[in-house]
């Protein structure tokens, strides 16, 4: 049975000279718009499942059930579970980076403890969601199809750290950014895995020491 989202094929024909090509009617756009909405719903469901149960929780059946769509919809829009996981991972990375940029948008101060407070504020997020993200990040070590997304995650985190360091007046060359961002990533994984009661405080102290090692911040402004 043909899927209702697939528009019926139209024989191609070159328009006659001097004859304007008729614009696509709103009625013909509706199936495409509906298809886009259904595909987005499936990806949203996959991202939610990554947060709920991690890599193993994302199956075609579970995604379709969470999205409230027929099981056949997942195989129609995604050729394999690997494609579904990769696109869900990419969407999760995109959303997390956007959240991080918002979180560190305003510095609470320029001293090492204050900037450390800003940078480690990214920990104040959904722990299960973070577990799903880092689980896929580690899976990228075994799956080359996920490596480009994992690198985009690392590069995005570096950009966030660089923006904070620059705003606070600290050195923000590639070496300094990698030093701070690498430390943050390790602390972040430790925090979401171990969930220590004092994890946040331990992370702030470690990042503050790293910032102090960069030297005092330069004067910003007149």
Automatic annotation (TrEMBL):
GO molecular function list: DNA-binding transcription factor activity; transcription cis-regulatory region binding
Highest taxon listed in the record's lineage: Bacteria
Keyword DNA-binding: yes
DNA-binding region, residue intervals: 59-78
Biased amino acid composition, Low complexity: 11-24
Keyword Chloroplast appears in the UniProt entry: no
Gene3D superfamilies for this protein: Tetracycline Repressor, domain 2
Protein name: HTH tetR-type domain-containing protein
């Amino acid at each position: 049975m043909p899927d209702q989202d697939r528009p019926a094929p139209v024989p191609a024909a070159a328009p006659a000279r001097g004859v304007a090509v008729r614009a696509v009617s709103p009625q013909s756009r509706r199936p495409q718009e509906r298809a886009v909405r259904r595909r987005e719903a499936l990806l949203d469901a996959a991202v939610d499942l990554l947060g709920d149960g991690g890599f193993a929780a994302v199956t075609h059946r579970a995604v379709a059930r969470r999205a409230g769509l027929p099981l056949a919809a997942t195989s129609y829009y995604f050729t394999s579970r690997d494609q579904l996981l990769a696109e869900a991972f990419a969407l999760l990375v995109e959303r997390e980076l956007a959240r991080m940029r918002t979180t560190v948008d305003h510095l609470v101060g320029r001293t090492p403890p204050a900037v450390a407070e800003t940078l480690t504020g990214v920990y104040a997020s959904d722990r299960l969601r973070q577990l799903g993200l880092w689980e896929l990040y580690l899976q990228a070590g075994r799956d080359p199809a996920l490596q480009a997304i994992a690198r985009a995650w690392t590069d995005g985190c570096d950009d966030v750290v660089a923006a904070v360091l620059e705003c606070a007046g600290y050195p923000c060359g590639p070496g300094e950014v990698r030093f701070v961002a690498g430390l943050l990533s390790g602390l972040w994984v430790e925090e979401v895995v171990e969930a220590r009661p004092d994890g946040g405080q331990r992370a702030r102290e470690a990042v503050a020491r790293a910032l102090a090692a960069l030297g005092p911040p330069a004067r910003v402004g007149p």
